[in-house]
Specification:
Elements: E1 13-19, H1 23-34, E2 39-42, H2 51-54, E3 60-61, E4 70-71, H3 72-83, E5 89-91, E6 96-101, E7 107-111, E8 116-124, E9 130-133, E10 147-148, E11 161-165, H4 169-180, E12 184-188, H5 198-209, E13 214-216, E14 220-225, E15 228-233, E16 236-241, E17 244-247, E18 251-254, H6 256-259, E19 283-285, H7 299-317
Parallel strand pairs: 1-2, 1-8, 2-5, 8-19, 10-17, 11-12, 11-17, 12-13
Antiparallel strand pairs: 3-4, 6-7, 7-8, 9-18, 14-15, 15-16
Helix pairs in contact: 1-3, 1-7, 4-5
Bound molecules: flavin-adenine dinucleotide.
Length: 338
């Protein structure tokens, strides 16, 4: 934690700070890094990819330019691979909450955890908002000692009895990761069938057949108890003992962490100029959050906005560099930063 009193000149500083690790933020970070600037990216979730990973990792996207029929999760992996050589400081699990001038033409962004980061320019790529896990609800939830809504690290659960509740892709993935880590896993969902990438679903079925993972679906979660849970399967009560219960119901967007920033908001949108500029000099907006794309919440638009805004941010921070990036095909390789 950095004390509120720490002067901006002593804070960790990059040329550009990107808020949001969805497709717009990842591509903006790529472009600023590609132009040779230092970049930090803050993402509220524990993984990158924004809506693609939180809401539809298993779905096929047909209209991403040059990538016919690509699964959303694969598209995110490709964006991460493209970004990797650029040395961007990526901080997942980090919610941006405050924005203040640094007194020298740049900005200081404060996080929910009390960290503060300085930057010459900020690119706001917060999409629909911070995608935070749905609250665990239901009878008896307070009675169980260890109920969670996210799985940060499966290795913590080796040897533990774990119940995973949910049919979303995160539930499938959590059940697989926990089984791989040596947890004793029961996976349950009220419907028959789970969502996930085809390879994950095949593995889920294989582990079930091998008896390494217990699957109870369709099943009704009646209540949690201090020892685990009571389910109904085919009309019969089935108690499940569990040291930890994961209730994974997907994610809900929350714009409130940034909605107090003086950006002239229009509902859930931030007005943007042709270069992605906002009402604040050196603060840019891209992707689903930008008003200009209101009726076109599309990946192709998010990528274009990210490229345009990042290159304007580059010129803002380093006026000696042109806004126009030139063609990557004429560069012959990733930049080397000194
Ligand atoms: C089910 C579904 C299917 C879709 N299919 C298609 C399709 O086929 N083709 C297409 O072109 N588009 C599709 N879209 C739309 C596309 O996913 C969005 O346009 C795109 O994700 C927008 O990218 P973004 O980076 O602006 O926002 P997001 O993807 O929403 O990413 C924003 C990120 O910022 C993070 N964030 C927000 N606030 C903060 C904060 N304060 N601090 C730190 N991090 C924060 C969020 O956690 C999130 O990860 C689909 C959308 C959905 C929901």
């Amino acid at each position: 934690m950095v004390a509120e009193s720490t002067p901006p000149s002593s804070l960790p500083r990059t040329d550009v700070l990107v808020i949001g690790g969805g497709p717009a933020g990842l591509h903006a970070a790529f472009y600023a890094g590609w132009r040779g600037l230092s970049v930090r990216l803050l993402e509220a979730r524990t993984e990158l990819g924004g809506q693609l990973m939180a809401l539809y990792p298993d779905k096929t996207v047909y209209d991403a330019p040059g990538l016919p029929q690509t699964r959303a999760a694969d598209l995110v992996r490709a964006l991460e691979v493209q970004l990797a050589p650029l040395g961007v400081d990526v901080r997942t699990g980090t919610v941006a909450r405050t924005l203040e001038p640094d007194g020298a033409g740049g900005w200081v962004v404060g996080t929910e955890g009390g960290r503060r980061f300085a930057a010459g320019a900020v690119i706001l790529a917060a999409g629909l908002g911070a995608l935070l896990p749905r609250e665990a609800r239901g009878e008896g939830v307070e009675s169980h000692p260890d109920v969670r809504t996210e799985l940060p690290d499966a290795a913590e659960f080796t040897g533990r009895r774990v119940l995973v509740v949910g049919g979303v892709p995160q539930a499938t993935r959590a059940a697989l990761e926990l089984t791989d880590s040596g947890a004793e896993v029961t996976l349950t969902h009220r419907r028959a069938g789970f969502r996930g990438e085809p390879g994950e679903l095949e593995r889920l079925e294989r582990l079930r057949v091998e008896g390494r993972l217990r699957v109870l679906s369709p099943a009704v979660l009646q209540r949690l108890t201090p020892e685990g849970a009571e389910l109904t399967v085919n009309g019969e009560g089935v108690p499940v003992e569990a040291d930890t219960v994961f209730i994974l119901g997907g994610y809900l967007p929350d714009l409130s962490p940034v909605q107090g920033w003086p950006l002239g908001w229009e509902g859930g949108y931030v007005p943007d100029g042709p270069g992605g500029e906002t009402a604040l000099p050196g603060v840019y907006v891209v992707g689903d959050l930008a008003r200009s794309g209101k009726d076109f919440k599309l990946l192709s638009l998010a990528f274009a906005q990210a490229a345009i805004a990042a290159n304007h941010a580059v010129h803002h921070v380093r006026p000696e560099l042109k806004v126009r990036p030139g063609h990557s095909s004429e560069r012959g390789g990733y930049p080397v930063r000194g």
